[in-house]
Specification:
Layout (H helix, E strand, L loop, with lengths): L4 H29 L22 H10 L8 H17 L4 H12 L19 H10 L7 H4 L2 H19 L2 H10 L1 H9 L7 H21 L2
Helix pairs in contact: 2-3, 3-7, 4-10, 5-7, 7-8, 8-9, 8-10
C-alpha cells in the first residue's frame, strides 16, 4: 500500500490548529469570567487579575487618599496606596471597602487620635495593637507603631478579619470594630439590638466608592 505524505500531514496540522484555537477560546472565557466582581459587603468574590502596570483600581485608591489631608508626603501616600491594595488582597477584601472604613475612622489623617485613645488611620487602641503586633511578628513600639501608616493598616485589617471570622457577618464585625467585640457579644447574649449605625455608614461609603469608580473609569 502506498502512503501519501500529504494525506498524513493535513489531518495532523488540522488537529493542531483546532487545539491551538481551543486554547485561545478557553483563555478568552477564563479572562472574561475573571473580571472583578464584588458583593455589597466589601468582600471580593473573584480575585483581581494582576497586571504589571498600575490598574485603574490602584490609581483610584491613590487618588482617594490624595483627596484628603493625610499629614504624609506624596511618596508616603503612594506607598500607603500599595499597602492598602496588598493587605486588602491578603484578606480577600475589596479595597473600596477598606477606603470607606478608613474614611469613617480617620478621614485618612495619619495623626488622628480619639478621646478614647485610638490612633492612626484605622483608629486602633494600644492594647489591641500590642496583641495584634505580637500575632503578626511586628516590633511593638507603642504609639510609634500605631502612627506608622503602613503598620496601622496591617494591624487594622488583620483585626477586622479576626472580627469578621468571629461574628460571621460583616455588619456585626464593623460594629465590633467600632464598639469593641466584648460589648457586641454582651449585647447579643442579652438578646439586645446591636447598633449598626457605624456599619451602615461604612457600607454606604463603600457603595459610593463603587459608583464613583465606575463613573470615573467608565466601567
Amino acid at each position: 500500500m502506498n502512503f501519501n505524505v500529504k494525506n498524513i500531514l493535513v489531518p495532523v496540522c488540522f488537529k493542531q490548529g483546532l487545539a491551538i484555537l481551543l486554547v485561545f477560546v478557553i483563555a478568552a472565557v477564563v479572562s472574561a469570567d475573571a473580571e472583578l466582581r464584588r458583593t455589597d459587603i466589601g468582600q471580593k468574590v473573584v480575585p483581581k487579575i494582576v497586571f504589571d502596570e498600575q490598574t485603574a483600581e490602584d490609581n483610584y485608591v491613590l487618588d482617594t487618599i490624595r483627596n484628603y489631608k493625610t499629614g504624609l508626603s506624596r511618596g508616603e501616600e503612594l506607598k500607603l496606596a500599595q499597602v492598602i491594595i496588598d493587605e486588602s488582597s491578603k484578606y480577600n477584601l475589596d479595597p473600596m471597602f477598606v477606603l470607606a472604613l478608613i474614611e469613617k475612622e480617620s478621614s485618612f489623617f495619619n495623626w488622628a487620635r480619639s478621646d478614647r485613645g485610638a490612633m492612626g488611620l484605622m483608629q486602633i487602641r494600644e492594647y489591641v495593637g500590642k496583641d495584634i503586633a505580637s500575632d503578626l511578628n511586628i516590633d511593638w513600639n507603642g504609639e510609634h507603631t500605631l502612627l506608622d501608616p503602613y503598620m496601622n493598616v496591617r494591624i487594622g485589617l488583620y483585626y477586622f478579619n479576626v472580627l469578621k471570622d468571629k461574628f460571621d457577618k460583616t455588619e456585626l464585625a464593623l460594629a465590633a470594630y467600632n464598639f469593641g467585640p466584648t460589648y457586641v457579644r454582651d449585647m447579643m447574649d442579652a438578646d439586645e439590638e446591636v447598633s449598626l449605625d457605624f456599619a451602615n455608614r461604612v457600607v454606604a461609603g463603600y457603595k459610593n466608592h463603587m459608583e464613583r469608580f465606575k463613573g470615573v473609569y467608565r466601567l
